[in-house]
Amino acid sequence: MAGHSKWANIKHKKAAVDAKKGKAFSKIAKEITVAARIGGGDPGSNITLRPLLAKARAVNMPADNIDRAIKKGTGEGNDSVQFDEIVYEGYAGDGVGIIVQCLTENRNRTAAEVRHCFNKANNNLGQTGSVSRSFQRKGLITFSTENTDEEALLEAAMEAGAADFEEQGDSFVVTTEPTDYPAVSDALEKAGFNAIDTEMTLVPDMLFEMTDVEKTKQVMAFIEQLEDLDDVQNVYTNMDVSDEIAEQLEDG
Fold first, then answer.
1. What values do phi and psi take at 118, rounded to 5?
2. Would you state the pLDDT for residue 157?
3. What ranges in the chain are assigned the alpha helix state H?
4. What residues contact residue 41 under an 8 Å CB cut-off, 6+ apart?
5. For residue 200, what are the CA distances in angstroms to 31, 51, 136, 203, 230?
6. How many CB atoms lie within 10 A of CB 62?
7. CATH architecture of the domain covering 84-133+205-251
8. Does domain 136-204 have CATH number 3.40.50.150?
9. Sequence spans of domains, the chain
10. Is pLDDT above 70 for 3?
11. How far is 227 from 249, CA to CA, in rounded Å?
12. Backbone angles phi, psi at 211, to 5 degrees
């Protein structure tokens, strides 16, 4: 993730705005529902559910919303639902790789909406594996640099089995292997470190450096349009925004 800090910061700022709108709640609720359906509603025995609950708490998601999402997955609620995961891959701009992860109860609707976004922006959908083969699955746990002891967090992260630790702008980012993610997330929470974001994500092997402000704006606008779709959970990209371009975006 070296050199990825500015894009990460831009993403985190958008995530904070989404949380205020309630959009983050509905997206996390879907993930919780799916995790509960597959592994049960007990976070003590469901290692996939535990970090999702931490993620929900990081955006101050109400306990009632969390409980309702779990019950949807376990079938205890009155509105149980089955979500299917669909992944789309394609390219934007001059070759930025895009992976769109969706959770939906209506595959046809989702396919039409995602395809419409790509077509409207004159971007191209690709075949399965065309983009994802250049990404690796990792756990990312993010903390604000404000009021966080860097040395203490680094020590706790390494002791818990983290793979990497990096300062990215105003954030500390702990990276884990997928199998270690739940344990590291749990350990840091128990040690008193409050994450501002925690997720299983896809990290690119190589970054695509953006050198043009207008093209960067176009790709970012396209990604935001995808993220605004109700069925889209996550959009992953190998786009790298230089410090110079990021400053122009922030000023603009």
1. -65, -45
2. 97
3. 5-21, 23-39, 49-58, 63-74, 107-120, 150-160, 181-190, 213-227, 243-251
4. 49, 70, 71, 73, 74, 76
5. 11, 9, 11, 10, 20
6. 10
7. 2-Layer Sandwich (3.30)
8. no
9. 5-74, 84-133+205-251, 136-204
10. no
11. 19
12. -120, 0
Q: The domain 5-74 belongs to what CATH superfamily?
A: Integrase, N-terminal zinc-binding domain (1.10.10.200)
Burial class (CB in 10 A: 0-12, 13-18, 19+), 216: buried
Token pair in block for residue 152: 């203490």
137 and 163 Cβ atoms separated by less than 8 Å: no
Name residue 160's amino acid. A
Q: Are 225 and 113 a contacting pair, CB within 8 Å? A: no
Is the pTM of the predicted complex or chain greater than 0.85? no
Band (pLDDT 50/70/90 cuts) for residue 14 is: low
- List of residues 6+ apart from 97 with CB closer than 8 A: 89, 91, 131, 134, 135, 204, 208, 237, 238
Identify which of 111, 163, 118, 159 has the alpha carbon closest to the alpha carbon of residue 136: 163
Q: How far apart are CA 124 and CA 103, in angstroms?
A: 21
| pLDDT per residue as tens digits for the range 161-211 | 999 999 988 899 999 999 999 889 889 989 999 888 888 889 999 999 888
Whether 5-74 and 84-133+205-251 share one fold: the answer is no
